[in-house]
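Question: what's this shape?

___
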Amino acid sequence: MTKQPNNNYLLLTIIKSKKKFSKNLYDHIFFIIFIFLFPLTSIYAQNNTNISGEYSSIPLKDVITHIESQTNYKFYFLEEWTQGIKVNNTFNNEKLSSVLETILEDTSLNFHILNTTNRIILIENGLVYDELPKGFFGPEEASEEKNSTRITNNSPPPVFYNTDNQSKKTYQVTKIGKSDLDNLRETYLLTGRAINSSTGNPIQDLAIRTKGSNLITVTDANGNYSLELPAGHNVLNIRAMGIASTEREIIMFNNGNLDLLMEEGLQQLDEVVVEADAFKNVEEAITGSEQIDSEESKNIPLVLGERDILSVAKALPGISSAGEGAMGLNVRGGKTDQNLVLLDDAVIYNPQHFFGIFQALNPFTTKGVDIYKGAIPVEFGGRLSSVFDIRTKNGNEEKLSGEGSVGPVTANLALEIPLEKEKSSLIVGGRAAYADWILRSLDEESLNNSNASFFDGIIKYHNKVNEKNDVKATAYYSRDAFSITSDSLYKYNNRLFSLRWNHNINDKTNTALILNNSNYGFGIDFDGETNTDFNLDYGINETEIKYKLRTSLNTKNTLDYGASAKYYSVNPGSIEPDGNESDIAPRSIDNEQAVEGALFIGDELTLNEKLSVNLGVRYAFFAALGKATQRTYEDGMPKNESTVQDTISYSNGENIKTYGGPEVRLSARYLFTPDFSVKASLNNSYQFLHTLSNNTTVSPIDTWKLSDLNIAPQKGYQASLGFYKNFKENEYELSIEGYYKKMEDVLDFKTGANLFLNENVETQILQGDGKAYGVEFLLKKKSGDLNGWLSYTYSRSLYRFDSEFSEERINNGDFFPSNFDKPHDVSVITNYRFTRRYSISANFVYQTGRPITYPIGTFRFNNADFVAFSDRNKFRIPDFYRLDLGLNIEGNHKKNKLAHSFVTISVYNVLGRNNPYSVFFVTDDGEVKALQSSIFSIPIPSITYNFKF
């Protein structure tokens, strides 16, 4: 029950006003303070009263009554404070203070024992103070006497709140935590989760700002947030697009949790401007990162009207390809195999269709991609240049919906299927090309039997098991088949599966357990006029398990840590005769296998409001395993048949060679102003997997090779420095970033190398040094009728292969340009909206022509003619430039429509520029002639119909 104190106690209300601290005057009112005017023991004073009792789910109020019956003490409290509190403890002749500490430990109640009058005061959240720190009423009133209590000059003042003000508020007051005399601080940590009250879904990018200050945080993808707040009274302003804005008044007594149940909000606006993460480019500590939303490719005119986030990526600074129609991307002077491309955590080895003209991703199931080309997060590894982290959407959990498109050569469709409302869903996507009819309709007899088709399909399951558990599973398959001649059919495919379990251990720690498998293979079916028909196959398969954790220690430290393990299995190639009449002898190369693992830990450290640091280390490990046969060669001698020392056979699973070492990830950001920062980073990495190709540009039949006894892993080191600035209320973003990269043991090949179906491919390989450096400029306009970006990159990519032996030396051991070295690269993407339904888009690209090796003369030897070539990559093909235009027409915006439509009319290569794809040389009547091949040498018009329901 509630009991009132008698007149032995005096409640003093001390009010001083109109004074300032600096002038011995206060400018605000102190609220009600309990001051006890006679000698008291401390708050935790011990007494000799002992308690016994066995309580099993007994209401706290009844336990208090039982304690009163055993002692002379009386309790004073409000009954509402004890409602719902049950006690489950057993005490045997224990001290009263210890008993109270135990039964009140997990409640919001503190206690104060008045031994002189046998009274116990319970108080919710706060503390009863029997004294105040020196100087509390100003320096002139501070006592010179020494206190022996725990309340000192440095102790924060008590928490006060004027309840009279509450009647004027439209929102409720929430008390967080309870005061602890041993842990009085000026700030406390508030954590929680934001949930949509209508759907139960977590709310991402909900901004939580402290009213009257610049303290702010944003919820993550799971709706979680954390914010360090001053002790005492705070007002939170909470808002997000599509969510009803609200304010919450809280009183911070200690660290605590506050979950936010938010309602959806609708508002009629003339214009909607979304500015989520408006300062992200300036505030985040990592360098060289880009983020592309799938919707960004909607208004960019690309070949045959296809949406393609990978083509959009090539319009960003530091990212390019070897040429139009070349597969793969070159990032900051790196080779195509130096990019880690992930689709929902699983590796996709070839994310492009038809020699890079189309992406192998359904644009309607793809949410976006995070690109890391500078400071790579500590959880990723195994590649030197970049990470492309591609994510698919979660399906609609409320109703059946879909999106699709029909174009000149492709059709796409995606369906979002709710399985259990507000809990689980399925998204299914499929694409297919039907380009064969175009080839067969051309007036060219050699193309009548040509084949150029592809398809890909994806299915993703998502289930929000409960507030702490979330499960996602993705399966993907793609296949290409093309035959531009009548005798050879080229085919390649990707297959992957990933399973991810997200689990929230508590408000501070989230975990993810990931299991995935990836497979890539290609084949050639040859059916010629002679008896040489064959079927050729190659494949690589990998399986990975990863466990990662993210822990918010406090507002200044967030840890990312975990471990991963991966198993590789490679079929280096096999050839079989096709038909009984074929003269081809069957042949296969022994399979390769290896394991790769990593341990990683990183800390996102906020040192102060201006300086933030990401520091991490990743230990990478790789072991090549048998069953295999490996050669050893004489030390210091070229690897060839004449220098073989021994041939070693390894049994299945036996360790052949082990590699590994630490990878450091360090990046920092210094914030000069809220919209201007400087960033720097330094990192190193290992790559244990390589592609083998002696083509000038990457092709789908390039093979992947594991490091082994004779092929060392590639190593890379990169440093970068950048400046980032936003203008005009974040409407414009400007960044300038420079980098320098050093590489060791990069691969190249001897002239005329035979790479495929070669049991001793190391005799055809050279390993040397590489370096790349450059400056990247990006100016982006994010909003308004006219928007888009301008990017410019100056970069160099150089290799050196030096040896005392001429067969292992290229260009006399000097640095020479790589096949994808393009010093100047300019891209302009613009979109102008006339009305809400009509807009035009333009895409302009200029690049320096890539390097090439030219024949510079002929000579005759032993009655035979030979061609003399220049130094490798001494010359360049003509510069590349292209202009694309598009007209975008949206259907009307009526709400009650069966489907909403969007039509794109585009012209690719408007100027009809005959950009060379490659230059090659033939001998005609004893004369060497240069010929040029192009992919698109004329304007390519297209119209694509998109629909959504």
The helical segments are 60-70, 96-103, 280-283, 309-313, 436-441. The mean pLDDT is 83. Residues 832 and 938 are 25 Å apart (CA to CA).
